[in-house]
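S., here's the first fold you wanted:
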Amino acid sequence: MVPDPITPDAPDLIARPLLTQSWLDLAFVHWAADPAEVAGLLPPGTVPDTLDGVTYVGLVAFRMHRVGWFRLPGVPYLGSFPETNVRLYSVDAQGRRGVVFRSLDASRLLPVTVARIGFRLPYVWSRMAIEADGDTVTYTSRRRWPGPRGARSRLTVRVGGRIGEPNALEHFLTARWGMHSAFFGRPMYLPNAHPRWPLHRAELVTCEEDLVVAAGLPKPAAEPVSVLYSPGVPVRFDRPAPPHRPAGIPTP
């Protein structure tokens, strides 16, 4: 198995999407991790994706905006909410690179329930807020259900200059065109497409969180190796791809 190349642009535009949404005001915070420490947390059929022998744990906070089905207009209230996810990086036997979500905190109970029951995704209901003050953005989250109750995060980033050409690590962490998961025990790959990320350097002003540990991962022992911000992109999700389907034809 040879992983597909990392490309800043989506391999397919997804003309007939299953889901549409926008991801806005994103903060990407990443720590380096030993692939052996996270391999057991990935779904069947995947292994840790690595860059120069290292994989990464991501804490990504953002604002979900107007989730919609097919080509229908996105829902303004139930489809718009803050979200914070803990994610890992994966690659499958077909070489498809993706992300694996260990947890997804969101502030709307109905979407959380639908995602947990309908897609078997590890969504949790949390009290959340996003506040902007000049060039700083603060994301807060405290877990409600199903738990562990009280798990929380408070991230504040100071947004810096626009990145003209992201480096290899920045591409690796953000140019992800699929999600690996398991649906009733069977491997699932959900492709996505969006415009190229507009990325900014960012400074991590505050990081008080225990979501990483609550997701079954070791507590980060060092400073993050990458902190980025993006104003966001519109996103399209395709239907799940079967295990034999190659990447690039039709997954943040």
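And the second, which I think is the more interesting of the pair:
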Amino acid sequence: MSHVVVIEDEGTVRDVLRFHLERAGLKVTALDSTHGGLEALSGADALVLDWMLPGESGLSFLRRLRADHDLRRMPVLMLTARAAEAERVEGLESGADDYLTKPFSAAELVARVRALLRRTQPDTPQTLSNGPLTVDVAAAEARMQGKRLNLTRREFDLLAFLTQHAGRVYSRTELLDRVWGADFLGGERTVDQHVTQLRAHLGDDPSKPGFLETVRGKGYRMRAWAEGV
């Protein structure tokens, strides 16, 4: 599930943005100012940013964002009531990827956000490999040293996600959002149980994992095979 951050100071507009983006199947974090904005964008996939904000303007925040080494490639859709061509050009030249003038339709908003996500997120490869582990996404099948693993659907989804993002640490909450979805009502213990089950399937020793590593205080990651075991 893609994660979109919305920064919009008008409460009604912010609620409308959240409603339509969540209805489109996206996870949304909504803020009323740029305070804490860079922190909120860590792990996000796109930003919907209003031009006119209290305190720091959206344009100023965008410039800071583009100067941040880790977040400079974040796709940004700028929202504004400014319709003049010169102002649209200023927004784009400051680093916005797209521009939407208020008022706008929900359909156009969702279409533009999805277009940004398609351009910036590569398609999931159909076959993922990590050493002796192979995950066939299209067939929903995983093999270890050529032997098929008998996984449940959710075990497979978790394994595929972590394999695709090998080397990156994900918290339990992030894994619940990305793999189980925002509507899932279970707790973080569910992630622990599935990791334990996957380790059994993979023949992974929790004390010296070759694949699924527990990162204390942070969560889990799939070790990239190049790191060694």
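Why I say that: Residues 106-120 form the longest helix (15 residues). The CA atoms of residues 132 and 146 lie 8 Å apart.

Talk tomorrow,
H.
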